[in-house]
Amino acid sequence: MKRYDCMTRLAARLTDELVILSLGASVDEWYNAAPHMRAASLFQQQLGCVTPQALGLAAGLPHRRIVSLDTDGGMMFNLGILATLGNERPKNLFVVVWDNECYQSIGGPPTHTASGRVDIAAIARGCGITQAHTARTIEEFEAHCVAGLAAEEPYVVVAKVAGAVQPDIRRKHSDGREDKYIFVRHVEATEGVVIMGPSEHN
Amino acid sequence: MKQSAVDAVIRGLKRAGVSIVCYLPDSLFKELYPALDADPDIRTIRVTNEGEGAAICGGVFLSGKRAALVMENSGLRASVEPLARMGLGAGIPVVMLMSYRGELGENNWWAIPHGITMEPVLNALRIPYRVVREEETIEQSILDAYNWSYNAYYHSAVALGGSIVR
What is the CATH number of the domain that holds A179? Predict the structure, then answer.
């Protein structure tokens, strides 16, 4: 199963959701797979921060569906977030873990999931996240997207994907600061709120 | 902490517009955490480590709500990685309220590292901070931290020490 194919299936189901995503090649893949979601996606370079940030966003905007696109390396960097999700039980957070069983962006050394023993979905279920599943085919993945985007409880799908990156995709040129401004302005416009407002005159 | 100091912290957080607090409990703030849990205007999120709490606070910032990360100052060390990446890499601010473990007067050997490392770690990350030891200045210091962070879009910290937490 290719991550890019999964992304295009997920992207086709997104309209007004907000997305936080992880580092590495998945950033450029999402940038191309979901062009209509660029302003609604926060492209971060933060191992271990993606799902926690998504939970913070979900807590602040409980009426809005939040999607976390995390990775096996990122999730294992801070497994504790699964325990926090299990107890906080956000009703609006769908977590996808791209599990390619390697640290792809540095050339592909294996993560712990490559052994076949470490099962992130099982860890999530052990944290009380009842809806935590592993998808191995594009059909399974799409079915979990349908369920996860409508769920009233935390929903985790671990997508077992190949280590290859989609070839010939356009690289994103913006950095973390520009990405943050684009995302914040999108949240402001769609929520009718001010996050980064004007200075005082004094 | 005295009840009056707990009240001052909560007044400061509310005046700063905080509605979500992430915390990992410690002993010096032990009276503060249940008061935060009980406050109807504040949602608390208990975290497994302070770095996770920092990242959740970053997400809350992006939502337009205001968050605080409340912890012992040892939690600063656990938060360095997400703080560096969010603050220096993206300009996503986190306001921290921490107990000052390990300052002069400390009577636990295990807390000495917290005192020795807190200010150098804050300085390494170029995080402005205020050490507050007078109860009368708690509320304004919390307000000042939020004002600064919401203009700098960078982290700030208030450390409560001295008789406030002893």
Answer: 3.40.50.970
